[in-house]
From TrEMBL, chain A:
Keywords: Cell membrane, Membrane, Transmembrane, Transmembrane helix, Transport. Signal peptide: none annotated. The chain crosses the membrane at residues 12-30, 100-121, 133-155, 188-207, 243-263, 289-314. The lineage of its organism: Bacteria, Pseudomonadati, Pseudomonadota, Alphaproteobacteria, Hyphomicrobiales. This is ABC-type dipeptide/oligopeptide/nickel transport system, permease component.
Automatic annotation (TrEMBL), chain B:
GO terms for cellular component: ATP-binding cassette (ABC) transporter complex; outer membrane-bounded periplasmic space. Belongs to the bacterial solute-binding protein 5 family. This is ABC-type dipeptide transport system, periplasmic component. InterPro entries: Peptide/Ni-bd, SBP_5, SBP_5_dom. It is found in: Periplasm. Pfam families: SBP_bac_5. Coiled coil: none annotated. Residues 77-448 form the Solute-binding protein family domain. Residues 1-25 form the signal peptide. It comes from Hoeflea phototrophica (strain DSM 17068 / NCIMB 14078 / DFL-43). SUPFAM superfamilies: Periplasmic binding protein-like II. It comes from the Bacteria. Keywords: Signal, Transport. GO terms for biological process: peptide transport.
Length: 327, 532
């Protein structure tokens, strides 16, 4: 187990290095940060001088080397745009994104599993039909449009919920949370629905398909033959076995929720790392972009690790296999 | 703004979900007559008054810091921290500024001539983003507590026009905090001034969360009349649809950067008023008029032929662009300088309706009866509907046989390409912060030469014009100077160095009880806002 984790960590570092290298090379095509940093009256000489000060005149490989060297000590440089340390910027924005991802992930998981089980057990019901149809709309509409529609209905027309921002926040140590204020809780509703809708549909359809598959299998028939109650059969046997692929998908989806919160954060002016990234791209703020991509890579790597470990917990056969292999 | 609570099942459901009606009324109440909630597309980049020469940054800083002179709504200069300014009667290279007495910085220290001197040092430093506006400065000297002499390297009759975004800092404060110079990125450390302020302005910084919310409250010790707005809550909202929605839902009171397609609808919304006005920015096309070979058409340069340039002008249907692309929100013209800038000429600004037959004749006369193919470069995230303007013109050029291949890119790629002469036919917008044509000539018309001609992507090269442009900088006889400006305009308009499209209009949207005028530099001041 320990060796397994260590091996995974070494792999993770390699993945991170590759991500850093790829993103660093890509940034050369995003444009010239100096163009947006200086006013229109700056002379060519001024621009050169600034490029020099930013270290942009060095070969990419040298820039990359010194970047990695500094990054390994936790120093990601100064944002060209906001003139503040990148690490501090990202850390101050991360709670907003994590809270949004958490709420929308929970929403997607509970509703997804619930609807999935329901539609699997009641295949013919009118409610199942409705849920399936609505879920189709959920996957086919772009996130941007869903967000704008929600804002239009719930913020402009009904005026029930705020249209942008995070509301009032409370600082608990380094963590800035919106959960403790009424306006903070109201603010998270629309973005969380927007962000979670696609994942919910995905989980729901997956649970439904798996559940239907499992219900047809022999051991369910045997369980029924033993006279177990519906409840025990559905939730004790069927659902538990359904959940293995669902956990995998949900885990990976949690990563994409954080990574792809960009659009939702932009639509709702949610002050998270996704919005920070988009603003940085437009300004060619290389230190922020690089650090953000590293962070996303890290999140994916960690989530994959956790998912692998969760397999052990849910599926006893893996433990048996692993143990058998050692002997 | 709070709506009466209705007993609909949906309403109860929502209340049960998470939010009580009471919370909502607290969150969405209308502004009282003192607070203004202000939203625009981007936030100020920094609070350092000399490190980012960028519109939204200067706009916010004008509320905290003050300048020696300010730009009024009509474009004229008005006193601010300086009460009088003039060129020294005995020395044409010295500007004299008489300062306002009894002004205090937010921390209570007095404003004196030494602070202006320290600010001049700071704004002319290598790491200052404003140093381009102060290149002629040789040094500053405090003659007495309320008189400053700024020594120029030569006669600079219009230097005071460059000072409308020159913020004055407190000498003692910058020294105490080690921020005598603007931020240097190489140093890799954050400057104190990025987050902390000490100005003389009408508002004091209450709190700041970059890109989330900045709160300013009135400075009780300010020298000028107290403004009606006593608290400013400034929130950037990047997405246009959300920005408009926030105004409609009553969560903000005043919105800048209103998308042109929403102007009409907002104007028809009860409770919302839209104010439009001319912006100090022209949108035009430029093309390489001197090279023998174009980048996208090696071995040939049709733009060198005056007939082709005239044909291209005849093909440009400015009124169609105004109606279709800009939804009426632009002022078409023929001279690429805004109307309130010194040197603007009604006659030169006139334009003709398109004439495709005549244009085709000219193309044939120039030796291109079958036209030619060329790349057209365009930004897609800088000006109002920039890419759509280019697309429209591509179609118009097609009617006279010019096949323009539209290359639409982000401004971060487009602008360096122009400066590095990697494009030969492009769209550009230009604002004139000095409100004088010399600014346009220096950057766009003069041939490249230390500090001048950096944006001359037209490759226009006319020694006579260059000499005239140079003479403007030091000509103290303003009548003679204006005559030279007129002559330069006449020449470059005849040579068709640029193909002007239109002046941009700005639109502000606000609740209809708020009076806010459009500022030509898009720098609205909350001190001017009044409530009905």
């Amino acid at each position: 187990m320990l060796a397994y984790i260590l091996r995974r960590i070494v792999q993770s570092v390699l993945v991170m290095l590759v991500v850093a290298l790829v993103s660093f090379s890509l940034f050369r095509f995003v444009g010239d940060p100096v163009a947006t940093m200086m006013g229109q009256e700056a002379s060519q000489a001024d621009r050169e001088a600034l490029r020099d000060r930013l270290g942009l005149n060095e070969p990419v490989i040298v820039q990359f080397g010194s970047y990695i060297a500094r990054a390994s000590t936790g120093d990601f440089g100064i944002s060209y745009r906001l003139q503040q340390p990148v690490m501090e910027l990202i850390l101050s924005r991360l709670p907003a994104t994590l809270e949004l991802a958490l709420v929308s992930g929970l929403l997607a998981f509970t509703l997804g599993v619930g609807f999935g089980v329901y539609t699997a057990l009641n295949r013919k019901g009118w409610l199942s039909g409705t849920i399936m149809t609505v879920s189709l709309i959920g996957v086919s509409l772009p996130t941007f449009l869903i967000g704008v529609l929600l804002i239009w209905v719930f913020a402009v027309e009904l005026q029930w919920l705020p249209s942008f921002g995070r509301g009032d926040t409370v600082d608990i140590g380094p963590w800035r949370t919106g959960f403790l204020t009424e306006s903070g809780r109201a603010s998270i509703v629309l973005p969380a629905i927007t962000l979670g809708l696609y994942q919910m549909t995905l989980i729901m359809r997956l649970v439904r398909a798996e559940m239907l598959e499992v219900l047809r299998s022999d051991y369910i028939k045997f369980a029924r033959a033993r006279g177990l109650s519906d409840r025990a059969v559905y939730f004790g046997h069927a659902l538990k076995n359904t959940l293995v692929p669902v956990i995998t998908i949900t885990g990976l989806q949690l990563g994409s929720i954080i990574a792809f919160a960009i659009i939702t954060e932009t639509v709702f002016q949610w002050p998270g790392v996704g919005a920070l990234f988009i603003n940085s791209v437009q300004f060619v703020d290389i230190p922020v972009m690089a650090a953000y991509l590293m962070l996303i890579a890290l999140i994916f790597v960690v989530i994959n690790l956790i998912v692998d470990l969760l397999y052990y917990v849910v599926d006893p056969r893996l433990r048996v296999d692993r143990a058998a292999a050692r002997h | 703004m709070t709506r009466p609570i209705t007993r609909s099942p949906l309403r109860r459901l929502a209340a049960g979900l998470m939010i009580s009606a009471a919370v909502m009324s607290a969150g969405l109440t209308a502004a009282n007559a003192e607070t203004i909630r202000w939203a625009r597309v981007g936030d100020a980049l920094t609070l350092d008054p000399h490190s980012a020469n960028e519109g939204p940054t200067s706009t916010l800083l004008h509320h905290i810091y003050e300048t020696l002179v300010r730009r009024d709504l009509d474009g004229s200069l008005k006193p601010r921290l300086a009460t009088e300014w003039f060129i020294h009667p005995d020395d044409p290279t010295v500007w004299v500024f008489k300062l306002r007495e009894g002004v205090k910085f937010h921390d209570g220290s007095d404003f004196t001539a030494e602070d202006v001197v320290a600010s001049v040092t700071r704004v002319t430093a290598e790491t200052s983003d404003f140093k381009g506006l102060h290149t002629a400065v040789a040094g500053a000297e405090a003659v007495d507590d309320y008189t400053v002499h700024i020594k120029m390297s030569g006669p600079s009759p219009l230097y005071v026009q460059n000072l409308t975004n020159f913020f004055i800092v407190d000498k003692g404060w910058v020294e105490a905090n080690g921020v005598e110079l603007p931020q240097d990125f190489k140093a890799g450390e954050e400057k104190y001034t990025v987050r902390n302020t000490n100005g003389t302005g009408p508002y004091v910084l209450e709190s700041r969360d970059p890109e989330v919310r900045t709160v300013l409250t009135t400075n009780p010790d300010h020298w000028d009349e107290a403004p009606q707005v006593t608290e400013i809550i400034y929130t950037p909202i990047k997405e246009a649809a959300t920005r408009v929605a926030a105004l409609l839902s009553g969560e903000v009171d005043f919105v800048q950067d209103v998308p042109v397609q929403d102007i009409e609808r907002l104007s028809n919304t009860p409770g919302v008023a839209v104010t439009a006005g001319a912006e100090n920015r022209t949108i035009f096309f430029a093309y390489d008029v001197t090279s023998d070979s174009l980048i996208s058409l090696p071995g040939d340069n049709p733009f060198k032929k005056p007939e082709v340039r005239e044909a291209m002008a005849l093909a440009l249907d400015r009124d169609a662009i105004r109606q279709v692309v800009m939804r009426g929100q632009s002022v078409p013209g023929g001279q690429n300088v805004p109307p309130f800038v010194n040197g603007h000429d009604e006659a030169l600004d006139a334009y003709t309706a398109p004439d495709y037959d005549k244009a085709m004749e000219l193309m044939t006369a120039a030796g291109y009866p079958d036209g030619f193919a060329i790349d057209m470069h365009c930004p897609n995230d800088r000006y109002i509907n920039d890419e759509a303007i280019c697309q429209a013109y591509v179609g118009m050029l097609g009617r006279i046989g010019i096949k323009a291949n539209l290359v639409s890119q982000s401004r971060t790629i487009h602008f360096p390409a122009i400066q590095n002469r990697q494009v030969d036919f492009y769209l550009l917008g230009w604002g004139v912060p000095t409100f004088d044509s010399q600014y346009v000539f220096d950057f766009l018309v003069h041939s490249p030469e230390e500090g001048r001609g950096g944006w001359n992507g037209s490759r226009y090269n006319n020694a006579e014009v260059d000499a005239m442009i140079k003479s403007l900088a030091t000509e103290t006889d303003l009548v003679k100077r204006d005559a030279t400006i007129a002559e330069i305009w006449k020449t470059i308009q005849e040579d068709r160095v640029f193909l002007m499209v239109h002046n941009q209009l700005l639109a502000y949207a606000a609740k209809d009880n708020i009076n806010v005028a459009v500022h030509p530099e898009n720098q609205p001041s909350m001190t001017d806002v009044t409530f009905k």
